[in-house]
Write a structure and sequence with these properties.
The protein has 182 residues and is an alpha+beta fold. It has a single domain, classed as Aminopeptidase. It is built from four helices and eight strands. An eight-stranded mixed beta sheet has the order 1-2-3-4-5-6-8-7, sandwiched between helices. Helix 1 packs across helix 2. The longest helix is centred in the middle third of the chain and has 15 residues. It is globular and about 40 Å long. Bound molecules: coenzyme A.
Length: 182
């Protein structure tokens, strides 16, 4: 899918939100590595295998071409500082109404409104794609992300006490949240 918006952040700077394309692959891999090193709340450790540049290019190309998925990047001062994506949980008839959402912002840019803007953009795209429900898993102690999700109307529907096994803090609750789209 395609998306474009221009917003003003809480500190007065401009932020562009747009779908990432294959030309952004290198920068998207860089922000992925950075954000995943900054917090223990995301799935992948920076030293775990992620996409190669070629795989990232294919991934962003497909997300742009398909009308039911998107990776939205947030750009401040010409630099990618965060991203969020909407992806179908599956394409079979019984589950094709459900989308998965993922989000991360560079810690240096937290609290400026970028997370909220990315969430709003993802929800808008999910509606446009015809999804009826957006879902995500969040670590129970990730109060910042949970606050953001609740602000957008997400509600908890389950908890997995052994959801994550962190190298640093052991088992972490994974809270399952959902948002119905009208
Ligand atoms: C969660 C995250 C995306 C939020 O991004 P952000 O750019 O800081 O978010 P915003 O500045 O737009 O804040 C949005 C809302 O989050 C909520 N929020 C922010 N900080 C909070 C806190 N400390 N406690 C509770 N809620 C909080 C508020 O509702 C806030 O809205 P408000 O400013 O109108 O009150 C960001 O902190 C992040 O990338 N964290 C690490 C990765 C991660 O945890 N991703 C989610 C995995 S499930």
């Amino acid at each position: 899918m395609n998306y474009f918006d221009r917003i003003t952040l809480k500190d007065g700077r401009e932020c562009i939100l747009r779908n990432g394309t294959e030309n952004d692959a290198e920068a998207v891999l860089e922000i992925f590595a950075l954000t995943h090193a900054q917090t223990d709340f995301l799935l992948t450790y920076p030293d775990e295998k992620t996409f190669t540049l070629e795989e990232e290019r294919d991934f962003l190309k497909r997300a742009t071409e398909n009308d039911d998925e998107i990776e939205i990047i947030a750009i401040v001062d010409g630099k990618i500082v965060g991203s969020a994506g909407i992806y179908p949980i599956g394409r079979r008839e019984k589950i094709k109404h459900r989308a998965d959402l993922g989000i991360s912002v560079d810690k240096q840019y937290w609290g400026l409104g970028i997370g909220g803007a990315l969430m709003g953009a993802c929800i808008e795209c999910a509606k446009k794609a015809g999804f009826l429900q957006v879902e995500l898993d969040v670590v129970g102690t990730n109060t910042r992300a949970m606050g953001l999700y609740k602000k957008f109307g997400f509600t908890e529907f389950g908890r997995n006490p052994m959801g994550f096994k962190s190298r640093y803090s052991g088992f972490m609750d994974l809270v399952q949240m959902r948002l119905e789209l009208k």
